Amino acid sequence: MITLIEHTATLEELVQEINRFEAIVSEWDESQRCVVVGLQRAIEALHKAALKRLIKNLKQGSMSALRHAVADEVVYAVLLYHELVKPAQPPLAQRIQIALDEVRPGLQSHNGDVELVAIKPPDTVEVRLIGTCSNCPSSTLTLSQGVEKAIKSHCPEITTVIAVKNGPSVDIVGSGLTSPFLPTSTWVKVTTVEQIPESGVLALQVAGNSLILYRQGINITCFDNACTHLGSLLSQGKVENGIITCPAHGFQYRLETGECLTVPEVSLQSYPLQIREDKVFVQLQKL
């Protein structure tokens, strides 16, 4: 007879416990983290093999039972983590708002903003640039290289993004399944202070993120290693007087703030950073 043990911990408590251990492990040396990662992969491989067999047996016995199981948010999240189900696509309106939220900080830093005006099926979105962005000479570039790029990245079905002068604001109510494996942030040790050259940049690949770190005295900043123009690697550019120049098309950025000196509306994406003793930690998104 198989006895099932009922766990009383809530989903939130379990996620908090995972985050707590990840924070502890992030401070370990790389060799120690490798052991933990190896153990994690071995356990995950075992779980995935067991889940595949369970799904196969359920399909042969009762598809309704399988559908009922996947409807549970915890079951769905674990199966999604192991790539055994297709991710549920958030509603189009929700994905558009996520895209706008990505570019909004850069616009707001220059007293501008953007808002969704209308979604016109099947492939068109109307937005309104407001504040200084509405009458800026570079507003066309802001739209094409910032807002439009972000929307099309999150919503590939959208092919046309139009900036309108007037129009009613749209209230968006998001919906969808909440999963503990949706992106959350975690602090990751990426390097030490001495490894970042004084008045220079250090390029790193960390958890799928391409980053550059800049150090000027005791001040350190971290940004995406990608020009906001066409995504060229900034780390291959020249750094002079705290300004880095993109090697592809000459866009320039102030490394203390991420501000684009060529087109101020499209600043670099920055990452929160902490220094603990001599170690540099960056806050990254995780699954």
Automatic annotation (TrEMBL):
For this protein, the record's PROSITE patterns field holds:
RIESKE (PS51296)
Looking up InterPro entries in the UniProt record yields:
Cholesterol_7-desaturase, FSCA_dom_sf, NIF_FeS_clus_asmbl_NifU_C, Rieske_2Fe-2S, Rieske_2Fe-2S_sf
Record flagged with keyword tRNA-binding: no
Name it.
NifU family protein
Q: What does this protein do?
A: May be involved in the formation or repair of [Fe-S] clusters present in iron-sulfur proteins.
A GO molecular function for this record? monooxygenase activity
Q: The Rieske domain covers which part of the protein?
A: 187-282
Keywords, A to Z, come to: 2Fe-2S, Coiled coil, Iron, Iron-sulfur, Metal-binding, Oxidoreductase
Q: Which Pfam families match?
A: NifU, Rieske
Task: Please give the organism.
Answer: Mojavia pulchra JT2-VF2
Tell me which stretches of the chain form a coiled coil: 4-31
> CDD domains, per this entry?
Rieske
Which top-rank group of organisms is this from? Bacteria
> Please, one GO biological process term?
iron-sulfur cluster assembly
